[in-house]
Structures are given as C-alpha cells and as structure tokens.
Write a structure and sequence with these properties.
Blueprint (H helix, E strand, L loop, with lengths): L6 E5 L4 H12 L3 E5 L3 H12 L5 E4 L7 H15 L4 E4 L5 E2 L7 H29 L2 E6 L12 H23 L5 E8 L1 E3 L2 H4 L1 E2 L3 E3 L5 E3 H13 L4 E4 L1 H12 L1 H16 E6 L24 H26 L7
Parallel strand pairs: 1-2, 1-4, 2-3, 4-6, 5-9, 6-7, 7-12, 8-11
Antiparallel strand pairs: 10-13
C-alpha cells in the first residue's frame, strides 16, 4: 500500500530518535502527529516535516504520564487525519547512579514515563486500531532490555518492561482474533542523540555513550521498515543484535563484561558531574536536536571495531556452549 497520506503518531518527537523518525516519515509523505512536552520544539520539527511533498504535521504537546492527555492525543490525530496507521511509543528518560543514589521521586518518574507512558500510548492506539480494523504499534525498548547494565536501574527496568508489554499485547491481540493489528519492539544500541546529556545523573561522574554508537537516522530507517513488514522485534545496529544473542547464550559472562564496560567507559573516570535531575522531572531549556555529537569519524571507527569484536565473541561463546560439559551458566 502506498505510504502517501498514512498517519503516524510519535511520542518523544522533539529530539533524538523521535525527531529523526518524524523527518523520515514526512519525507515519505506521511502525516505526522508530534507529541512531547515542549511545544516550541515540536513546532520546529513540524516546520521541517511540512517541507516534504504531501506531508502534513500536527503538534500536540503531551505529557505521556497523563493518561487523559494521551487519549486526547489519539483523538486529535483521528479528528485531524481520520485514522492512525502507526503509533510510535518513543518518549523516554533515564537516571544514572546506583540504586541508593537516585532519589525515589526521580526513580518513579522514569518508570512513569518509560513504562506507564507506553501503556497509556498502547491503550489509546489500540483503541483506535480496533475500530478501524488494523494498524501497527511500535514500542522503542533498548538493548539494555535484553542485556542489563548497572548504574541505570530505572531505565533498564523500564526497557525490559517494554519488551514484556509488547509480548503480552501480541498475545491478547492473537486471542482476540485481531491479525490486522501488529505490535513491534525496537531495541537500539547506543544512539547519537542528546539523551545522555539530558539524563538525570547522581553518579558523580559524567555520562558518556558506550561504544559502539549509531545514528538516530539508522533507528528511523528500522522503524520505517517495520511499518512495511512488521516483526516481533528489530535490533538497531549489529552490535545490539550480537549483544542480545550473547545475553541468551552466556548471561553470566555478559553481565560481568557489561558491568566492567559500564564502570570503565559509560561513566567517566576523569570528568566529574554535579547531581542533576536532567529532563526527568521537567523539560530542559536547551534547544532540542536529533544528534548529540557522539558520532564523529573516530567514533565510527570504534563502532566498527566494537561490532567486529562482538561478532568474534558471539562465535566463541556459541562454540563454547556446544562443547560437552559447557552448558553451565
């Protein structure tokens, strides 16, 4: 079916992956409904989207933790464009630090945005899709939903929950006889977005992206492919896929390796950081953007080297698991 005139609702559309997805959909002639907390940044995205032939854009400032606001978002989309073909649950926040360092109100807010926000979005989207007889819900999880890391517990919990949410919804839709409604999960690796600079941080150390780092546009391409050929899950970047495989084959080993990598490279040992709630409790005043400035030429080389190392590791782990006496985890 032609993409021209299809309708997508995107939460977290003001920056990062959401913003990249909005621009990618608009370039294909989709009508985009843009949701996030900051209206001015959404208007900027809408202006860019409207430059593409056939694309229309609607701005609906929304706090996804408010179920009524999310229902209102769905109604606005249907009123403006008549239907919702795709709903992209993407809005996410994070808080770095150990469990006893992150304030309870910040911890809870991460779960409210990253879990309840997705549940509210799913409820609103599926209500519309049942009435119209079809559609695709896409939930953005993370590779840490498959391979956990320390010092980011509320985010890790939420991304694992997103995978569970998607699976349960697929089961319910199957049992209800709704083959025309698809639920997909996206599991990106580290993305070059403002995410790390915007996150809450109580670790005392500057947060740095953990290599390999991929562009937000790569995630947007993956999301668009899912609208054409829905799948249960789609990883973004070969490193993400390989890490997911390794976590299944050798979970104990992967836990040790990721703990070491997180402590050595994801939280700086040289650059301190003052405690901050980041954009968790309220939006930051800084301008929104797609990129975070982490994806230079040197980092691209690191990304490729890291992906190659992970590939070798996956082969070695798989070989180890197939040898007699090596089945213990």
């Amino acid at each position: 079916m032609a993409e021209q005139g299809k309708v997508v609702v995107i939460t977290g559309a003001s920056s990062g992956v959401g913003r990249a997805c909005a621009q990618r959909f608009a370039s294909r002639g989709w009508s985009v409904v843009l949701a996030a907390r900051r209206a001015a940044e959404l208007e900027e995205v809408a202006a860019v989207c409207r430059k593409h032939r056939g694309a229309r854009a609607l701005v609906v400032p929304t706090d996804v933790t408010d179920a009524q606001a999310v229902d209102h978002l769905a109604r606005r989309a249907v009123t403006a464009f008549g239907r919702i073909d795709v709903w992209l649950n993407n809005a996410s926040v994070a808080a770095f630090g150990s469990l006893d360092e992150i304030p309870p109100e910040v911890f809870r807010r991460v779960l409210d945005v990253d879990v309840m926000g997705y549940a509210h979005g799913a409820r609103a989207a599926l209500g519309v899709m049942r009435e119209q007889g079809g559609g695709t819900l896409i939930n953005v999880s993370s590779v840490v939903g498959a391979a956990v890391v320390p010092y980011n517990i509320p985010y890790v919990i939420s991304k694992a929950a997103v995978r569970a949410l998607s699976g349960s919804l697929r089961q319910e839709l199957r049992l209800a006889g709704r083959p025309g409604i698809h639920v997909c999960t996206v599991l990106p690796a580290t993305m070059d977005t403002p995410f790390f600079g915007n996150a809450a941080n109580y670790s005392g150390r500057k947060v740095l992206p953990m290599a390999p780092v991929y562009t937000a546009e790569r995630a947007a391409r993956t999301v668009l492919r899912l609208t054409r050929r829905p799948r249960r899950e789609a990883y973004v970047g070969p490193a993400s896929r390989l890490l997911g495989i390794q976590a299944k084959l050798a979970p104990r080993l992967v836990e040790r390796l990721l703990a070491h990598q997180m402590d050595r490279s994801h939280l700086s040992r040289k650059q301190p950081a003052e405690p901050t709630s980041g954009n968790v409790l309220r939006p930051l005043p800084e301008p929104a953007a797609v990129v975070g400035g982490w994806h230079g030429r040197r980092r691209t080389a690191v990304r490729r080297a890291g992906a190659a190392a992970l590939a070798v590791g996956a082969v070695l782990v798989a070989g180890r698991r197939t040898r007699p006496g090596c089945g213990r985890k």
